[in-house]
Design brief:
6-stranded parallel beta sheet, Rossmann fold, 2 domains
């Protein structure tokens, strides 16, 4: 059994919980250690209690670095009593620094995997801060065995041309974790009954101020013909007054957090469309990512709405599904819904249903394959014959 130490940047992030569940479903045992962030509830997976290394603040990169530096001094104390792992999985750059310290504590050359599912804007800075941070990443990544990322556009637009890393890359898309088969059912259409509005769902990490404004303006213009439902974790540091803004905005409703993946079917089946647009780091990370909500909405029959020129739009256009706006503004949304009738909506759902469910889900077999790739790294380090990596599991190298 592969034993993995998972170093997490935010223990309350639902993505951390899903990754732990993925590793466990793949047959690995997991020690989870990382940082609290504000009032975020700690991840809880089948009784697994995380090791809290400190607290960080959302949107305050310098404070995060200081907290990581502080934690590095007593990391050994926090990890004491836990068995030596076979693999160290480091989520984000600051955890990569702690992975080196953990290796020193265990006194062994444990393979390190770098998990990077977002490209921080400072890494894309062309000035001295960006150059310094990329230099740090190159130094910390020198002995890393594998990079895990979620979008091919991250590799093509950042890791290959700019990062200076030379690593094999494992593409692990942000698919829905489906371990019981229940979410494998074909999506069902839900045409609003007469007099009821179409509904757009914006679910997940709510951090994009521009999206909130566009959706609020559009909902107000439509005057009850379209309703926008928000669910998830707002990044309050990115908004002046998130709760007050939503309360003042007609036909815009925030319904709080949800469990992922347990609640996905129920919340997405309340809407007909998924807002799969993000301007948080417009033209950079936001243009390259393939968000969780893309896979979640498509799996459950909510037609995705994307904006042209992004990786999400390319993904939809290749599969002839969803709606791609030339501009993500209230006027373009009005045009989309002005031309929408029941027949057009039903045709969109049929196209979505025709795509195999494996496009949207990570099942138990995929979890096992994910862990098997990690296990092959331990074989390489020990000098024994490595298990072959499945074809296409590795999607190339960063350089």
């Amino acid at each position: 059994m592969t034993h993995i130490l998972y170093l997490a940047h935010d223990l309350g992030d639902p993505a951390i919980r899903r990754r732990v569940m993925t590793l466990q479903a793949g047959g690995a045992t997991v020690i989870l250690a990382g940082f609290k962030r504000g009032d975020n509830t700690l991840a809880s997976v089948d009784g697994l209690m995380p090791i809290v290394l400190g607290e960080t603040a959302d949107g305050r990169f310098a404070q995060r670095i200081a907290s990581v530096a502080k934690a590095s001094f007593n990391l050994g104390v926090r990890l004491k009593g836990n068995a030596k792992p076979d693999i160290i999985l480091a989520r984000n750059l600051e955890m990569l620094a702690l992975a080196r310290r953990a290796n020193a504590f265990y006194g062994a050359d444990i393979p390190v995997v770098y998990e990077c599912l977002d490209i921080h804007r400072l890494l894309l800075n062309n000035g001295l801060p960006g150059k310094l941070l990329n230099a740090v990443q190159r130094a910390l990544g020198r002995n890393v065995k594998l990079l895990v990322t979620s979008s091919p556009a991250f590799v093509e637009n950042y890791f290959k041309p700019r990062s200076g890393l030379n690593l094999p890359v494992l593409l692990q898309e942000n698919k829905v974790l489906a371990l019981d088969g229940a979410t494998m059912l074909a999506p069902s259409p839900r045409v609003p009954v007469s007099g009821q509005p179409w509904k757009i769902g914006w679910f997940g990490a709510l951090r994009c101020r521009k999206s909130l404004q566009v959706l609020a303006d559009f909902a107000a213009r439509m005057d009850g013909k379209v309703e926008v439902i928000l669910r998830g974790r707002p990044a309050y540091s990115e908004f002046d007054d998130f709760d007050g803004f939503v309360e003042r905005s007609p036909h815009l409703t925030f319904l709080g957090p949800y469990r992922n993946p347990e609640d996905l079917a129920s919340i997405y089946r309340e809407v007909q469309f998924t807002w799969a647009i993000d301007f948080f780091e417009e033209g950079l990370n936001s243009s390259w990512l393939l968000p969780n909500r893309l896979y979640e909405g498509c799996l459950h029959g909510a037609l995705p709405i994307a904006v042209a020129g992004t990786e999400t739009a390319r993904f939809l256009e290749e599969r002839h599904i969803g709606h791609v706006l030339e501009k993500a503004d209230p006027a373009s949304l009005e045009g989309l819904f002005a031309d929408l009738d029941d027949a057009a909506y039903l045709n969109g759902v049929r196209k979505l249903a025709a795509i195999g469910r494996q496009q949207w889900v990570t099942d138990t077999n995929a979890c096992r394959e994910f862990v098997r790739v990690f296990h092959s790294l331990t074989s390489q380090t020990s000098g024994t014959a490595a298990d072959p990596v499945a074809p296409l599991a590795l999607c190339g190298r960063t350089s």
